[in-house]
Recover the amino acids of this structure.
């Protein structure tokens, strides 16, 4: 067999093998963490908390401030704090849900903190069943923002924080959308029904 003919066969065989070889797998880039709604954080916590107490009820849910780069936006936050109580145990246990590791003992995912005794209420707050939470924090924000256009225009840089708790005046759980870092330092907030998403009250 002629050398040139052998070279052609070898070259053709190499091309076939190269064409049949598997293309290298491209590693998918992981999506960067994103802020989450109150209910997404709560359901993650509640699923974990069932191992602590099967009769767990909600006392309150609050957004957690991290830093200027990780602020709540339109109902989504980087971290949430959930206080649950167990009537059978007479205990309260705090859980946090964070999408990133952060200062203040915040860990990515669900993290359970120490439990403490609970006598049935904490100030005006009292436990309620998770079934009362039908609307998410994004819905509550839309309702509050619609009622707060003038205030938001005058105070565009004020951070917005969130609390969900039972409201004795309205007899049901409600979102409190707070323009400010806390209730005590805020001059303006809106209550939104946690079951219907309807406006309930403006607080100054």
């Amino acid at each position: 067999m002629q050398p040139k003919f052998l070279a052609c066969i070898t070259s053709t065989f190499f091309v076939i093998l190269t064409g049949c070889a598997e293309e290298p797998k491209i590693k998918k880039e992981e999506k960067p963490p994103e802020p989450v709604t109150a209910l997404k954080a709560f359901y993650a916590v509640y699923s974990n908390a069932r191992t602590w107490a099967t009769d767990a009820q909600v006392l309150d849910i609050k957004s957690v401030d991290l830093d200027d780069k990780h602020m709540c936006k339109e109902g989504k936050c980087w971290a949430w704090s959930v206080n649950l109580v167990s009537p059978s145990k007479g205990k309260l246990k705090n859980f946090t849900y964070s999408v990133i590791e952060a200062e203040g003992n915040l860990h990515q995912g669900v993290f359970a903190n120490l439990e403490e005794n609970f006598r049935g209420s904490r100030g005006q707050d009292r436990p309620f069943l998770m079934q009362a939470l039908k609307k998410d924090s994004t819905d509550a924000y839309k309702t509050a923002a619609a009622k707060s256009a003038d205030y938001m225009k005058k105070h565009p840089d004020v951070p917005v924080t969130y609390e969900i708790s039972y409201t004795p005046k309205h007899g049901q759980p409600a979102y409190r959308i707070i323009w400010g870092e806390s209730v005590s330092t805020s001059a303006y907030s809106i209550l939104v029904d946690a079951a219907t998403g309807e406006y309930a009250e403006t607080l100054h």
Q: What stands out?
A: The radius of gyration is 26 Å. DSSP finds four helices and eight strands in the chain.
